[in-house]
Amino acid sequence: MATRLYSPLLLALLLVVTAASARAADYELLYHAAVSPDSEVARVEIRLRGERLPRKLMLHLNPDRHLALHSDAGLTLAGDTATWEPQGPDASLHYEFVISEKKSSGRYDSLLTDDWAILRSDKLIPPITATVAKGLTASAELQFELPENWSSAAPYANTSKSSNHYQIVDPGRRLPRPKGWLILGNISSRQDSIDGVDVRVAAPAGQGERLQDTLAFLAWTIPDVKAVFPGFPEHLLVVTAGKPMWRGGLSGTRSLFMHSDRPLISGNRTSSMIHELIHVAAGINGGKDADWIVEGLAEYYAANILWRSGAVSDLRYQQVLDWKETWGRKADTLFVKRSSGPVTARAAVFMHRLHLALQEASDGAVGLDEVARELARDRGRVSLFQLKQIVQKLAGDSVDVDAIIAGLERGGSRGGSGHAF
User: Fold this and answer.
1) Domain tally for the chain?
2) Do 195 and 47 share a structural domain?
3) Could you tell me the CA-to-CA distances from 150 to 27, 171, 285 in Å, in that order?
4) For 77-131, what is each residue's pLDDT tens digit?
5) Domain with 252 in it: what CATH number?
6) Phi and psi torsions of 365, nearest 5°
7) Are residues 310 and 246 both part of a single domain?
8) Whole-number Cα distances in Å, 396 to 35, 203, 362
9) Would you call 21 exposed, middle or buried from its count of C-beta atoms within 10 A (0-12, 13-18, 19+)?
10) Whole-prediction pTM
């Protein structure tokens, strides 16, 4: 048999690759949740395995939903905070999570029934502040223990272990934590790869009449959303259900919930589905008095994506802009803690006027897409100061953000919506 010879350089490279593969993570982190219609709570275990573990985890609890915490060692409770100092090589923390939560409207944004459960994994697993040695990395997984006839859908890739076992990806976090919407139980779903995104649309069994319509709508619109936000996640889960769930839409990490009664395109030619898709794509939140920036972007693109994809005509898109401008006059100011209704409409008009001003100043070279991409670059908190910096970078002093805002505050038409393109 011939002997295979390698050059010293190739041998060195092979050793580096092998060592990197062998040291993919320093410890294993498993989030295990047992869910059954026989119990109102999920029984949760957080398990750490490895010779080197995080020194301390601080769990920020919802006292109405995270109950009965216990561990073999290293756990102290103080108010709404649990401090856990895990002791290797195998440490576990256990608690119970109340699944169902009713909003003030009487509808549910999290619910367990005899046949299914809809909830968010970032509620199931509370926010965690971790003290981790520099360079220490984890391989994190989420596993569900379910009744025999139940299955699950989550916005993550399955591991090879089972269909109810997921590999957690949480970039930039020292302690990976699951986030996003979940649906468990007797469910129906449709799945496809759309422009490089693994998309799954799921509903409780018997409520999935519109799953294929929704998947087709996403196939029509996601490419245009990705053209604005190329960092769109690789996985997207859309959960939909009817009564008694909350009759609205709400985004999460790599996922969103949309009530089955909500139309894909509303009568005023905007789309709640696209609005929430923009939140998923951008991954941003507003700082002090900056929620209007986040909501304004989403509402602007909720109509603009329909127009640029050819779903609505130039005339109809112009009518949407005019309608938003009229509705936005009912708002006194953009600078509120939570942007909704007329405030969000006014914010969408601001985004359109900013786009026109940038187009004019740059002879069409840049517009709102470039602003949106910059705001979403770090997928974090945004501010008016940051927005102004981006506009200054793109257009210098040719575009005055404060002047556009002032024009809206006066109800004026400076840079108005008379030109949609």
Assistant:
1) 2
2) yes
3) 30, 30, 34
4) 999 999 999 998 999 999 999 999 998 888 999 999 999 999 999 999 999 999 9
5) 2.60.40.3650
6) -75, -35
7) no
8) 55, 48, 10
9) exposed
10) 0.90
